[in-house]
C-alpha cells in the first residue's frame, strides 16, 4: 500500500480507501447488497493489504453501513481512520436533514452510536444545504471538533465557490478548517478540473475520490449489449451522467493500455487517478473479494509518463469561460521566460 497526507493535515491515509456503501440492504438492491459475513471478509482483506482509511455515511442503507463497519472493525478501530458523512434525510421530521446546527449535532451523536466509537476521525458534510447559513454549518462543525467528537472535517459535493467561501470564513474566525473534499472524479468525469482542483491545490485541501470507476463503468465489465441487464448495478443505479457511447470508445484505449501492463481496465483507471498530486485517496467500494483484490492491485501499478499523457488527452474536458480566455491570452514572452 502507498500512503499520503490528507490535504494540509498531518493525518496519514492509505491512497486506496475502503468505501462501505455496499454494506447492508435496502431500497437500492444493486447497491446495498453485502451481508455481514461477506463484509467481514472484505474489511479483513482491506486491512491486511494496508488500507487504514474506511468511509461510510449515515444515509447508506439507513445507517446499516455504519453499524456493520463499526462492528467489523472491532478491536482494530484504533488502527484505522473512519470517515462518515451527514446531511441527507434520516427521518420524516422537517429538521432530520440538512446542515443546521441541530441536525449536525443529532447526526453526529447517532453516527457515533452506530459506529460504536467515541470519535469520528473525519466528519464530512455530504452535500450543500441552501436552507442553512454557511456560518451556522461551519460553527457547528468547529464545535464538534472542539468537543473531541470529531477529529477532522471535510465536505462533499460542494461547488468550488462555496468551499472557497467556507475556507475563508474558517481562517477569519479561527474555526476548524476543511482538510478534505470528497468529490466525484474519474477518467470520464473530469468536471473537477475546471475550478475545484485548482482551488484545492491552492488551499491545501486534499481530494478523496468517490466513484473512481464511474459507477463500475470503467471496470470494463459492461458492454453495449449488457448495459441494460436488470441485474447489473448501472441498470438500477445509473446516477452519473455521461455519454455511454463516448465512454465505450474511451474504454478501447484503456483496454489497450491495460493489455500492455498485464492489468485490468479498472486498475489503469485507478492508477491514473493515483498519479494526480491533488488526490489524497481513492475510495474503492467492493461487493466481492475478487473485485477488491483487483482494485487493491492498482496501488502497485505505475503508468509511465507517455501513457498518463495519453489518458489525459483521451478525455480532457473542453475549457470553460473564463478559463479558455485566460489560456488564449497568456503572454507568450513571459511564459517562455518562465518555462511554461
Automatic annotation (TrEMBL):
Keyword GTP-binding in record: no
SUPFAM superfamilies: NAD(P)-linked oxidoreductase
Domain (NADP-dependent oxidoreductase): residue spans on this chain: 15-314
Keyword Signal attached: no
Stored Pfam families: Aldo_ket_red
Domain of life: Bacteria
GO cellular component, one term: cytosol
InterPro entries documented for this protein: AKR, AKR_Detox_Biosynth, NAD(P)_OxRdtase_dom_sf, NADP_OxRdtase_dom
Entry's Gene Ontology molecular function annotations: oxidoreductase activity
Keywords: Oxidoreductase
PANTHER family referenced in this protein's UniProt entry, alphabetically: NADH-SPECIFIC METHYLGLYOXAL REDUCTASE-RELATED, OXIDOREDUCTASE
Protein name (record): Aldo/keto reductase
Organism: Cohnella xylanilytica
Amino acid at each position: 500500500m502507498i500512503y499520503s497526507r490528507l490535504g494540509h493535515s498531518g493525518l496519514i491515509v492509505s491512497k486506496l480507501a475502503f468505501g462501505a456503501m455496499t454494506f447492508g440492504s435496502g431500497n437500492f438492491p444493486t447497491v446495498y447488497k453485502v451481508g455481514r459475513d461477506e463484509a467481514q471478509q472484505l474489511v479483513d482483506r482491506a486491512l491486511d493489504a494496508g488500507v487504514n482509511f474506511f468511509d461510510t455515511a449515515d444515509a447508506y442503507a439507513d445507517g446499516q453501513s455504519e453499524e456493520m463497519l463499526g462492528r467489523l472493525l472491532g478491536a482494530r478501530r484504533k488502527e484505522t481512520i473512519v470517515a462518515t458523512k451527514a446531511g441527507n434525510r434520516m427521518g420524516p421530521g422537517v429538521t432530520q436533514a440538512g446542515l443546521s446546527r441541530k441536525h449536525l449535532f443529532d447526526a453526529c451523536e447517532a453516527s457515533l452510536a452506530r459506529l460504536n466509537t467515541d470519535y469520528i476521525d473525519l466528519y464530512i458534510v455530504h452535500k450543500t444545504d441552501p436552507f442553512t447559513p454557511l456560518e451556522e454549518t461551519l460553527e457547528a462543525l468547529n464545535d464538534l471538533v472542539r468537543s473531541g467528537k470529531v477529529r477532522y472535517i471535510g465536505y462533499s459535493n460542494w461547488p468550488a465557490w462555496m468551499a472557497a467561501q467556507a475556507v475563508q470564513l474558517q481562517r477569519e474566525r479561527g474555526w476548524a478548517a476543511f482538510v478534505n473534499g470528497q468529490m466525484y472524479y474519474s477518467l470520464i468525469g473530469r468536471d473537477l478540473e475546471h475550478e475545484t482542483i485548482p482551488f484545492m491545490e491552492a488551499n491545501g485541501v486534499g481530494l478523496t475520490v468517490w466513484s473512481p470507476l464511474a459507477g463500475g463503468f470503467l471496470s470494463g465489465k459492461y458492454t453495449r449489449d449488457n448495459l441494460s441487464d436488470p441485474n447489473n448495478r448501472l441498470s438500477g443505479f445509473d446516477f452519473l451522467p455521461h455519454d455511454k457511447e463516448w465512454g465505450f470508445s474511451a474504454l478501447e484505449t484503456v483496454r489497450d493500455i491495460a493489455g500492455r501492463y498485464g492489468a485490468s481496465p479498472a486498475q489503469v483507471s485507478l492508477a491514473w487517478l493515483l498519479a494526480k498530486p491533488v488526490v489524497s485517496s481513492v475510495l474503492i467500494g467492493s461487493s466481492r473479494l475478487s473485485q477488491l483484490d483487483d482494485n487493491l492491485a492498482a496501488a502497485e501499478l505505475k503508468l509511465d509518463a507517455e501513457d498518463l499523457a495519453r489518458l489525459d488527452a483521451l478525455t480532457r474536458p473542453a475549457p470553460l469561460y473564463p478559463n479558455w480566455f485566460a489560456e488564449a491570452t497568456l503572454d507568450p514572452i513571459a511564459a517562455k521566460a518562465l518555462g511554461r
